[in-house]
Amino acid sequence: MREILFRGKTLDDNVWVYGYYVHQYGANMIYVDDATDYEHINTETVGQYTGFSDKNGIKIFEGDIVVIKTNGTEYKAIVKFGKYSITQGLQCGIYTEWIENNYLREDFIFWVDRGIEVVGNIHDNSELLSS
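-> structure tokens emitted (131 positions)
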């Protein structure tokens, strides 16, 4: 079974926390550690753990920027969760999205077994996508 884990940045000091995401009493929180302590978080930074780790053992979260190597070329991709189109159908799950030859490409996160590597995330390292 996949570990259920979320991350988000705290509202007060903009630090990443990891744990269980809860929307309760009009507030968005992540319960950390043994679920007795919580932090109020910025909902725009919340991302769920995919259940996968990269080639270095780093957990891959929604919103991570990863490097994918395919056909001798290296691409930077964003890890996303949701519905997307593939050959006129809809799929649901965790996937990567990147630009290849001016074309938006989406694929399941099966790239994990091909040496995918986390290099940052869209909240802290958005400049990585332009380079």
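The first strand starts at residue 6 and ends at 9.
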